[in-house]
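Usage

Read records sequentially. Each one opens with the input sequence:
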Amino acid sequence: MSKYSSKWLKVSEPSPYVLHVELARAPVNAFSIEFWTAYGKLFDSLVEDGVDCRALVVSSAFPKIFTAGLDLNDANSLGGNGVDTSRDSARASFATRNEMIRFQRAIGAPERTPFPVIVAVHGPVIGLGVDMISVCDIRYAASNASFAIKEVDIGLAPDIGSLAFLPKITGNHSLIRELTYTARTFSAAEAEKIGFLSKVVEGGRDEVVKAALELAKFIATKSPVAVSGSKHLITHSRDHSVPENLAYTGAWNAAALLTKDISENLRATKQRDAARFAALKVPSKL
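and closes with the structure output:
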């Protein structure tokens, strides 16, 4: 997996079909343009190359923090993006919008993967960090984790994903508005209570990463066709009505039910053996 590691992203394979991505931009994982571009490219490359990943864990390489959010040096340059606003403000707006869409697409890359992405956070998760983890399939947090939707304190509305995901994840518009308008810090316990987290692990980085990797290892034993299809259909259900999702699921499974994974599951159950599933995609030559 060394091919996929880069300056600030460490990629390893701690167990078969499980990848571990560690954020490692010292000292606090602040996201510059180069960093978030590399982050999005990593996920897209894994998919394009057909890497047989069946679950992936994202964590921080640093013991005291997950991320401080957006690098403030980049935040200062968000307005103009090198365009002469005195000459044509419309063109400046187009340039800013294009950059924003590129930013959203990079941070949203985990949702485009056919495999589940589990994020294991600890310590402060600030601003962009909340956007990042909102996109992931499953969120685990150490008991020492804290969160803040911090953009209002910079002088802008959150624009990379928090406001799109959080109301749908938690179902609590009142509290999401409060947390956004005030930019106040909230604990892992409060985040779990409102449904933002699926699990709080007592301890810090080591404990939550261990729990997330164990979950990833278990998911990796399941049929890739079933897990990938489930991810796709759950995402579809979030953005469509019940009748629309049922109709879509019927069309999806009309093809997916032809998988050999079903017979392999039956064989493994009958023989009390571990199921052995083929990759979703034949990997390209690495």
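Summary fields computed downstream for this record:
- The chain is about 50% helix and 15% strand.
- The chain has a mean pLDDT of 93.
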